[in-house]
Amino acid sequence: MRDAALATTRPLRTPGVIHYGSVGANEACDLLNRFYHPLSLGETPGGDVKIEMEVIQLGPLTIGHLTFAGGVTLIAAAADAYHVTLPVTGRVLARHHGREVTAGPATALTFRPGEPVYLRPEAPSAEIDVRIERWALESELATLLGRPVEGPIDLPAAFNLTGGPAHSWSRLIRLLHEELEHGTSLIFQPQVAEHLRSSVLSGLLLSVPHRYHEELAAPGTAGPPRSIRRVLDAINDEPERPFTVAALAGIARMSVRSLQEGFRRHLGCTPMAYLQRTRLDRAHAALRGADPAAVTVASIANRWGFAHLGRFASAYRARFGVSPSETLRRRA
């Protein structure tokens, strides 16, 4: 199935962007699994399903423009990331905890990690689907607050896009989509892409209600001091590097003891615990997107700085509730 889907790929017009022409239900299901969540795709009886996709991936952020011709239903037992659907034309029916929500261009739909996904776009219709890796959104929130958070974040099932910060956030998403056609766009510059990615994540957190929103929006909310932020940036930029606590203290320009105390006060963990969590999150994302015929758990563990496979597997299961091999097999 994967080969058939890839055969529909048109030549890339821009770096980092993948375009798919009109594909049928089987190919579309494979593509949606590849870029979003493990799901099944149902067809309306008598309908001729055709889907077009245009996708850009900026690290843990995936933005895709999907066009549907023919009735289709998208179902996932559980989302494995934060997901936001912004209808562009037509309407989309979603189900949340037994309640049906119908959204048009004025309303966005959200799903949290662990929640079942049910989407039924009417045909013809188009939508922008945003996937944010769980670790990325929760790390962004923790950095903004200057302390650890307990996820998943309780984003609302739907939110209005017609005014306020949410309207501004939706314009940012649409801007990123519109820039895909321009190969010389600044969004393909790594430094700019990094700022845009952070803007999308922090913008969503500031635009919708959740249990941390009041604290986040309060005047004078202080994040970690600059010295701690330097260490966070170093870890998030290159978590695979063989950092030691002494090396991280050097980056912070403080003593090891002061660094340890600073992390406990502002992040609620030690620097090395934060490093391991970041590595586990990156390994999880890599396993989820990998082809099990082409890579192994060991190669991904090694890629993200884990030298001992057994300890990696134990820590991975403790964080995600499944083994690394189970995550990799879901791609088969």
Describe what you observe in this structure:
This protein has 332 residues and is an alpha+beta fold. It folds into two domains: 219 residues, Jelly Rolls (Sandwich), CATH 2.60.120; 104 residues, Arc Repressor Mutant, subunit A. Helices cover 42% and strands 22% of the residues. The chain has 13 helices and twelve strands. Strands 1-3-4-11-6-9-12 form a seven-stranded antiparallel sheet. The protein has a five-stranded antiparallel sheet with strand order 2-5-10-7-8, with helices on one face. The longest helix has 19 residues.
Detail the topology: elements first, then pairings.
Blueprint: H1 2-6, E1 17-23, H2 25-35, E2 40-43, E3 50-58, E4 61-69, E5 72-76, E6 82-89, E7 92-96, E8 99-103, E9 107-111, E10 117-121, E11 125-132, H3 134-145, E12 158-160, H4 164-178, H5 190-207, H6 213-217, H7 226-237, H8 245-252, H9 256-266, H10 271-289, H11 297-303, H12 309-320, H13 324-329
Helix pairs in contact: 3-5, 4-5, 7-8
Keywords:
single chain, 332 residues, alpha+beta, Jelly Rolls, Arc Repressor Mutant, subunit A, 2 domains, 7-stranded antiparallel sheet, 5-stranded antiparallel sheet, 13 helices, disordered N terminus
Residue windows where pLDDT falls under 50 for at least 5 positions: 1-15
Any guess at the CATH architecture of the largest domain? Sandwich
Write the CATH homologous superfamily of the largest domain.
Jelly Rolls
User: What is the share of helical residues?
Assistant: 40-55%
> What is the structural class?
alpha+beta
Number of helices: 13
Describe the strand arrangement of the main beta sheet, using strand numbers.
Answer: 1-3-4-11-6-9-12
Sheet bearing the most strands, described?
Answer: 7 strands, antiparallel
The end-to-end distance, rounded to whole angstroms, is 10 Å
Report the β-strand fraction as a percent range: 15-25%
Gross geometry: globular
What is the name of the CATH topology of the largest domain? Answer: Jelly Rolls
Name the average pLDDT. 83
Query: How many β-strand stretches?
Result: 12
**What is the CATH C level class of the largest domain, in words?**
Mainly Beta
Helix and strand run: HEHEEEEEEEEEEHEHHHHHHHHHH
What is the alpha-carbon Rg in Å?
20 Å
In total, the number of domains comes to: 2
